[in-house]
Amino acid sequence: MIPWPWKPEPDYRRLLAALHRKGDPARVPFLELFADLEMIQAILEEPPVPPKDKIKDRETLERWVDQRIRFWHCLGYDAFWHGATLQWSKLLPLESADTAALTREKRTWVNEKAGVVSSWADFERYPWPTYDQVDFYPMEYAARRLPEGMGIVAQISGILEPVMWLMGYETFAVALYEQPDLVEAVFSRIESLYVPLAAALVEMDGVVGLWMGDDMGFKTGPMIAPKHLRKYVFPLQIPLRGHLKRKT
User: What is the pLDDT averaged over residues 171-175?
Assistant: First the structure.
């Protein structure tokens, strides 16, 4: 690992104070959504542990958590994004050769044209994840391994992105006008999964906040019309935002 010229002294309270706009922090606190495995390997100068969705045993899972903690800690972060996630199966990703300097051979992204839920028949047969399938062990283990002063910002996926992933962006955009009942049903199913997950995450040891990661727009505007954001997305964010950590 690179010998940094400082000793990390994380303090999640500094991060929370900045988020609440209370006082002037001694320095700007950083918070990052994620880091690619190639960057973790380059910074720590060690082989990366496989991605979480590829891990099949608990020992490797613990090494994955430990490596993430070491990475964010050595860079001076007060907290890091970490969670117990739901897995969306049968998505239709696209692939291309990776031309980056730190290559992973192939890059994948979500198919924006076609999805797995484009009709009511698709909705009924899709293998929706359930709350009882969530594995909270990575969160429990991380809480026991945190360096003094460091916190966890609990990870929960956004509300809009899963709908676009499942339906395909083009299909979703058309369905907003031609099948609004189907769109509403998909959003409601997301709500039924995410609200109890958010409530559980914020009560876990080591958690100091909840962070939803969601792509709602691009450089020239939102992904969908503001009226649709107000109808389908923002109302679901309110109950999630209400699940605040009682103690820090």
Answer: 96
Residue 241's pLDDT is what?
61
Nearest alpha-carbon partner for 66 in 82, 54, 78, 85: 82
Give the chain's mean pLDDT. 87
Q: With the C-alpha atoms ordered 166, 238, 240, 152, is the resulting torsion angle positive or negative?
A: positive
What's the pTM value of the predicted model, to 2 decimals? 0.85
* pLDDT reading at 248 higher than 60: no
CB 8 within 8 A of CB 72: no
Q: Name 204's bridge partners.
A: none
The 3-state DSSP class for residue 14 equals helix
The CATH code of the domain that includes 109 is: 3.20.20.210
Q: State the total domains in the chain.
A: 1
The range of the structural domain enclosing residue 224 comes to: 12-241
- 96 falls within a domain: yes
- 79 has a pLDDT exceeding 60: yes
Instruction: Specify if 63 maps to a domain.
Output: yes
**Residue 196 tokens, joined:** 């109890």
Task: Please calculate the CA angle 243-82-233 and round it to the nearest 5 degrees.
Answer: 45
Amino acid identity at 68: R
Rounded to whole angstroms, the Cα distance separating 219 from 221 reads 6
Instruction: Say if residues 164 and 183 touch (Cβ distance below 8 Å).
Output: no
Instruction: For residue 128, tell me if it sits in a domain.
Output: yes
